Amino acid sequence: MESKGLILGLDIGVRSVGWALLDLQAKEIKGLGVRVFDAGVEGNIERGRDTSKAASRREARLRRRQTDRQVRKQVKLAHILQDSGLLPKGNVSNPGERHKLISDLDKELGSSYSSAERGKLPYVLRASALHNELEPTEIGRALYHLAQRRGFKSNRKSAAKADEKQGKVKPAIHELEKKIISLGAETLGEYLAMQDSPKVALRRQYTSRDMYQDEFEAIWREQAKYHPNILTAELKAKVSDAVFYQRPLKSQAHLIGKCQLETGEKRAPKAKRIAQRFRLLETVNRLRLIGAEGV
Questions:
Q1: Which residue in 12, 56, 75, 142 has a CA-CA distance of 20 to 30 Å to 244?
Q2: Model pLDDT for residues 198-215, shown as the tens digit of each residue
Q3: Backbone angles phi and psi of 77, in degrees to 5
């Protein structure tokens, strides 16, 4: 920028603005400096590997919400199972009392099993429910255990592309499915109940929602033969909804701003080709070539 023999030069960066004021007549630098400001992101900004400073707070808030939803889901299921006689009576709305109720039930049910089986009682009950008649509280404990896990389910609306990189979740799930088949187990619960090696982690494994839904159907189908008056179609619908219902993603359409160029239209997504073309042309049109004789 030039005015009355003065030139102001600016070096605008992502986290700073450098400046220098030149006096052409006196041929001297009148002043110079730099102003550094905190960026709104963290990471390597120059290489585009930056993340928002609010990302950690957003992730923590998401985890709190997930935990709260899981607790409410378990409380809802516990009330349904209690009303149908599949769980003992007690205050399941209080976390401490609900945990004590389940622990006391495990001790009571585990008294008829070996010490090795008591260590993985819920899995043993889930496996036994596929072939043998269980008592109502044993059925309730197995169903409640399904709700405590219930596996991974993607919220993705479209199928992944063939050449798209997969994370470690889906390959691990496919590998687990192969192990279940190779061992001759009918369900995930039966496979985990068959594990005797301490090297096999019963909980630290990636599982899919389909595994739990298939097991739920198998358990209900078998136990309904022995308890038709309890395990009714109406109760099945309630339990299934309490265990497997997943809230759909909340629409963010209301956050899209209005277009400044088209009256009454929303802004186009950045991923659209026409939006990318607009940004490209806008950037090119703003460029100025400065030579020795000026613009």
A1: 56
A2: 656 777 788 999 999 999
A3: -65, -40
Q: What are phi and psi of 266, to 5 degrees?
A: -80, 160
Asked whether the beta carbons of 13 and 37 are under 8 A apart, the reply is no
Whether the CB-CB separation of 279 and 273 falls below 8 Å is answered with: no
Q: How many Cβ atoms from other residues are within 10 Å of residue 205's Cβ?
A: 17
Contacts of 119 (CB under 8 A, 6+ apart): none
Please state the φ and ψ torsions of residue 117, each to the nearest 5 degrees.
Answer: -75, -35
DSSP for 72-129, written as a single string: HHHHHHHHHHHHTTSS--S--SSHHHHHHHHHHHHHHHHTTS-HHHHTTHHHHHHHHT
Q: Is the CA virtual torsion 191, 196, 197, 200 positive or negative? A: positive
Query: Measured between alpha carbons, how far is 104 from 97 in angstroms, rounded to an integer?
Result: 10
Give the containing element (helix H, strand E) for 35.
strand 28-36
Of 236, 243, 182, 185, which is closest to residue 209 (Cα–Cα)? Answer: 243
Report whether pLDDT(136) > 80: yes
Q: Tokens for 169?
A: 């979740």
Distance of CA 233 to the CA centre of its chain: 31
Nearest one of 3, 4, 2, 1 to 12, comparing CA atoms? 1
| 5: confidence class by pLDDT, cuts 50, 70, 90 | confident
pLDDT at residue 198, as a whole number: 61
At which residue do the structure tokens 């400065």 appear? 290
**81-110 average pLDDT score:** 94
CA pair distance 41, 36, nearest whole angstrom: 14
Q: Which two tokens stand for residue 6?
A: 């003065």
